[in-house]
Amino acid sequence: MHLKRKIEAYLNSWINTKKGLLIKGQRQVGKTYIVEHCLKPYFDNVVQINLLLDKNLCSILSTCKNSESFLDRLHLYFNFDDKKEKVLLFIDEIQESYRYQNNIPNNDYIDLLTISKSIITSTKIRVVFSGSLLGIEIFDVLNKVDSLPMGYVDIVEMFPIDFEEFLWANNINERIIGNLVDCFNNKIPIDNAIHTRMMELFNQYLLIGGMPDAVKSFIENRNLQEVNNIHKQINNYISADISKYASINDKLKIKEIYKILPSELNSQTKRFNLKDIKDFKKSLNLNLSFSWLTNAGIAIPVFNTNDLAIPLKIDSHRNLLKLFHADVGLLTYLYFDITVKQKLLIGDLNVNKGSIVENFVAQQLHAHGFEELYYYNNKRNGELDFVVVHNSNILPIEIKSGKDYKRHSALNNVLSNSNRQLPQAFVFCNSNIKKVGQITYFPIYLVSFLTKD
Predict the structure, then answer these.
(1) Contact call for residues 112 and 130 (beta carbons, < 8 A)
(2) Helix (H, G, I), strand (E, B) or coil at 9
(3) Is 321 helix (H, G, I), strand (E, B) or coil?
(4) Distance CA 284, CA 224 (A)
(5) 106 in the Ramachandran plot: left (φ > 0), alpha (ψ -120 to 50) or beta?
(6) Which parts of the chain register pLDDT below 50?
(7) Are 33 and 79 in contact (CB under 8 A)?
(8) Residue 252 exposed, middle or buried by CB count within 10 Å (0-12, 13-18, 19+)
(9) Burial class of 437 by CB neighbour count within 10 A (0 to 12, 13 to 18, 19+)
(10) What's the pTM?
């Protein structure tokens, strides 16, 4: 079963350029698959290298002196003609090259990203890199390279499957999705039958999430136990990555932060309480531990701001934050056992899903161009779940998972008391679309159609 992804349109246009490509993203989001599915069929000859699986080749390629010796060594190990019109060199798990180089003295190695410029300009070979954990400080590829070939290599990030892609996977046709987009843009109610079906799929998505293997397994087999096993495996990968890639001094703190992330989200404020961290000591290293999870693509931070002014970063507080999981399905795996999830799926059990729904929103916003997310907290006005910059204006957003979605005193205070002019505010809830003054109430799933521009 092929899962259609939004990045496919980007890759189809990239084929017509002469640039290289770096695809980054958290582990298991489908980077390797999407290259194999979308790009490999287009090329006459493909050389695919996985540096994580082939340690010997990683050392051989990483110790080249220049692009000529790099190509010579490729010819030694692979049968390909670099004079052909359509040749693809796909180097997967590029971060392993930089990890290997940490053990090589005197910088006696070649930077694979840097030499790609020479390969691109002097041969007909198209070069694609992909990797996980590329944002981690000690292996930060984008900072570590001597001269990142800007203009020659495009960088694109892959995220877990978002809700619109989940609709594609469930064979919801473009006519229905187009209708949802029109209703969202024009703020008109959705047909009740469509709304009911979308809420069913939304509740499924909260349990399945957006990791491709989990989505594919559920759609093909409708077996939550299989999905649970996939989530368990991915969670084990995360723990292994922390042990493997984090520094010795930080890995215990990072593991502890990841371990208590679900309980912190389930607290009344959903804010991360630093004192809940075992052996807590306020320090730069602790901030780096949060950054590690963020840069590894495992968590999404939402920072506090106490002013509704552009740019939001100016009045933000980096030590006050909510920390969401990068995939809501992995969060529900950490929250609920399989019996509870099976009852939730068929509607036999009601639980407080507030933190899970907020996690869903953070995940969708993050994937749709809102690179940094904020929540608002002011002693006079109260707290708003999210504030973002949308169409050059501050947009306050409230998330309501219960029936009292019209109760939002903080939002009312902000709209009436703020000295900043706010043209509109959104409340995402279980109800159909309704506009009341400056506030528009949207079904929660429609946040998937809110993009930065």
Answers:
(1) no
(2) helix
(3) strand
(4) 41
(5) left
(6) 137-139, 146, 284
(7) no
(8) middle
(9) exposed
(10) 0.91
